[in-house]
Amino acid sequence: MFVSVVGLGFRQVVFSFTMFGDLFEEDYSSEWNSQYGKEKKLKTKVLEPPAPREFTNLSGIRNQGGTCYLNSLLQTLHFTPEFREALFSLGPEELGSFEEKDNADAKVRIIPLQLQRMFAQLLLLDQDAASTTDLTDSFGWTSNEEMRQHDVQELNRILFSALETSLVGTSGHDLIHRLYHGTIVNQVVCKECKSVSEKQEDFLDLTVAVRNVAGLEDALWNMYVEEEVFDCDNLYHCGTCDRLVKAAKSAKLRKLPPFLTVSLLRFNFDFVKHERYKETSRYTFPLRINLKPFCEQSELDDVEYVYDLFSVIIHQGGCYGGHYHVYIKDVDHLGNWHSQEEKSKPDVQNEEEIDDDPLIVLKAILLQEENNLIPVDQLGQKLLKKRGISWNKKYRKRYGPLRKFLQLHSQVFLLSSDESTVRLLKNGSAQAEPALQRQEQRLSQTHASESPGPHDGDSCPHWFDINDSKVQPIKEKDIEQQFQGKESAYMLFYRKSRLQRPPEARANPRYGVPCHLLNEMDAANIELQRKRAECDSADSGFELHLHLSPHYHFFNGALHPTVSQAESMWDLTFDKRKTLGELRQSVFQLLGFWEGDLVLSVAKLVPAGLHIYQMLAGDDLTLCEAGIEDGEDIFVWNGVEVGGVHIPTGSDCEPVLINVLHLAASSEGGRCQQVVEAPRVFPSDAEVRAVLTALAVPGGALFVGTTDAVGEERWVAIPEEDLRKTFRAQGLRNGSSLLVQASDDGNSLLLRQGKWFTGMNEVNWLQVQNLCGVESEEKQVKISVTTSTVVLEVRTKAIKELKLMKELAEDSCLRPINRNGKLLCPVPDSCTVQEAELKMGSSLGLCPGKAPTRSQLFLFFTVGSDAQSGAEMEIIVEETTSVGDCLKLMLAKCGLPGDTWHLQKTDWCFEAGEPLCEEDASLKELMVCSGDTLLLIEGKLPPPGFLKVPVWWYQPGGPSGHWKSHWDQMDGSPAPTQGAPGDLYAEASLRHVGDLEISEEATLLELKAQAMTLSSSDLGVPSPAFLRAWTLESKRPSRLLRINPQRLTDYKLGRKTEICLEPLQKEENLGPHDVVLRTQMRIPGRRAYAPHVDLVWDTAQGWTACSLRQCVAHFCSLPVEKIEIAKYFPEKFEWLPVSSWNQQITKRKKKKKQDNLQGAPYYLKDGDTIGIKNLLVEDDEDFGAVRDDLGKESQKQLALGRQKSPEALHAKSSGAFSRAKTPARARAPEASLSIHVGSFR
């Protein structure tokens, strides 16, 4: 733990531990179309409020990306009512209030306040899951921290430390100590004089071993009952006897807390294999435990030693990835352990046996019909009437459509030839009656039994599994499943059995909650109800796409329109709560005239065209019950044919588009030497040999295109017996490639393709390339191996087959080569192929130099922040080497002088990550592994609590209303040119003026003021109010920092953040809703734009297109109906017109969209370019400029060049094997977990 003192304001304490770091990483384009149809209104969707609580009446917590460990601990604290109520007892007079948090003079204890609000939401707010965003903000966590998972045991200690600091000076100052702290006494007893030497220490939790221990009680026995004897060569020096004597050492629990926390050491390190592992062996723990055998003898009652288990935090996964959830005992009976169905039915299991088996349900319905015969449509209606739920809602997801289920059970049901009626077969009837009788008899016995009393079975608290947002009831016996395995208990929480809850707290979530939080939650619930009502009314309409059969014809295995899409497809908005019969009537009225039967079927656009899947039957079913979704394609036809052609329907005959390669036929009737590749359509249920029939090939072989483990394309032969399989059974999908080899073609086609093929046997070799710098006859050889082959044997064979000198056997190593041709970390000779994780068929390089031993690390390092520059160097060091010594070795190898350097790790995308701050710590302690890449960065690290911020001056291209004179004198930047705006950031001048070391507690205004004092920043700016601040990413302004009084910590600036300051001609004080846009007026008749002018747009009323158009019109002094605006996308050289969406009309709507320019397809943000067209002088639809045409043409030529030279690119990458050497992708960088707390002493 470390404490840092910050220069501004009161002290800030940062609690930070590094235990397992990122050991537990957690295992969730929109197109714009300029063509609009007619008579179709776009509607906005109300932002959907959180869902209400489910039947358990308990609230989960939403996962922010990697915060499952936090959620599990918060739920445990929430279900510790004594902790929760003690926190609630602290009022605003002690903790302060949220309204005062921005007041520098008020000491607001923000973390306890946020915990109070979080617990109140979990108790009272009617939502399925609460958010921890405000709480983690109070911790001082950045968005990166919220995506990174840590160890829950580590969090438990840090959070309690932060709370203790936050509550100093309040009546709750001893809250943690009073509830969770206990005392252990360690004693050494001299065997000679019987004198006792003892040492007492506090504990927050008991950490117990798991390895080679049967359970918790055994672990406690080893720790607090068994003695360690000092004798023989290990004697103890007794102070009383003043000599070495025999002695016994033991430990006992002296003081027990009301709540006992037990941490299980499930994660260990294997010092032989040099890797972490998780202990998954069986480890039992009791629901009730008596700790008296492990405590000092005292006169306390036995009941003081008895504890009950009430929470089990579970880790699921391995040591490098996983997920946390928690089993909780509901001490206050706040949750509903039985579902509504379980409450209304005495024995749910018996009725579920019938409801969950559709065979029994359908047999029972058919047995009641005359002749056991019924139309299929009526069968669905009977099911709905009998069970109160439709087939689609109850069974479709698991068993598929009703007709398909009846077809699959042909031994029980007999469908008519047109599949309109179904009959129960006699053997099915005979089997059904006894089963049904047994079920009815069992149910009647259950109903006849005496109903339980209102509190029977509810006197004892029940258990729940809380997994982030999901809350499920469990039984007490389910806890035994967490004794062992990859999903197993990780932390145990016990409470003293004598702790009794007051009767008024039972099933009363309002008990103990302060009045101000009760009022806040009541108001929030009223607002939630209002939003849900709005959302329900706005979200009841479905958009359906009606395809009309008279405008379609069947061609090449699928339906295709014969006219334009606007004529062949109509869009219809229909209430999803209405029935299919009402939909059919609406379609009939919409068409005006229809001859014959009108059948509606669900269709889908596939690569081959439009395909019909199933008819919509059951006029009494609502659209939801019929399984119709928003945006569904509906085909309107007579149910039999289209244009005189019978139409195949269903998923079984879905058309697939296959790329077929074969030799073209010559004019003489033979086969010429030209390879033809053409797409062909086949039904999914057709046999694969239909390809040969379609090409009129009497006989031959088929090969399917695949990609092997190293990314090389190959052709795999399809066995002759598999040619009778269907395309679906053979695994062929849309886009699959088939190569046809006629029997008279020989091998010519495969040779011309330049590709190789194999049978179905697995590859069992490794390819070794000679990269030793010694000439050999062969450049590479294939070595036959198995998974158990030792790497040393592979290396020896490679040297022999390459006919190299035997001396290389003592001074060479094998290094894997990745897909990009880069050399990775050497493989130890003692590993097997499987242990080294080498894939069959992969490539290795035989390189000079020995591989590192098990106690050494092979590291890549480079100077500067670019880990992929191709200038990486390599070094082998001992894992016990300190960071400082490693830095000196790397500097010496690079020949760099000085001591103003530091080391940084790289993240998963090989960019600069977290710095290695502790120079005395060993590489092993900081979890540096072989193959990691370290960066040598010039400059000393700033002290804790400070940021080192590189500062740039920024001048956009084509400045308007900015400081120019000093800039032009200093940088000589060119005058702006007219034309398309291009990329204003690319045209901008960026000049580095120095690095600024500043406190994290400083404000943005103070940062600007200090930046003006840098020696190279003399631009004549009068004051900080004349500067606009941006964060810099990839040498471009990214995020606008708009509020001057706000602290830098509130902006969540990381260590790598760079700031650019833009000088302005007048003062600017942006509010939280102000957005800065670069506007450019189009010059009529010239396809060019005037220099840009900044526009500040107030988005307080929403990010709507209408609001932006009105703001731009007022800015340009033009009528709003006489302007057109568009956003510029410089990377595509394209303009996207911005219209008032509520006035737009389209024929087809693919998806509901909100009227919000922050979302797709605009993604509007600060600094974007907005083009303005004056319709009074120019009314064409073109927003483009000459520069856009040139940019698009350049992109097109670049793309063509890439397509034409794949061989050159392949040769370039192959030739780089020996030059570029980057490591394999590293694990996420080590990061400590910390919570920032103000000091209130």
Automatic annotation (TrEMBL):
Q: Where is the signal peptide?
A: 1-16
Entry keyword annotation includes Cytoplasm: no
Q: Which GO terms describe its biological process?
A: protein deubiquitination; proteolysis
Q: Where are the transmembrane segments?
A: none
Annotated EC: 3.4.19.12
Where the record annotates domain USP, the positions are 59-497
The keyword Hydrolase appears for this protein: yes
Q: Where is this region: Disordered?
A: 430-460, 1198-1241
Put simply, this protein is called: Ubiquitin carboxyl-terminal hydrolase 40
Q: What is the lineage of its organism?
A: Eukaryota, Metazoa, Chordata, Craniata, Vertebrata
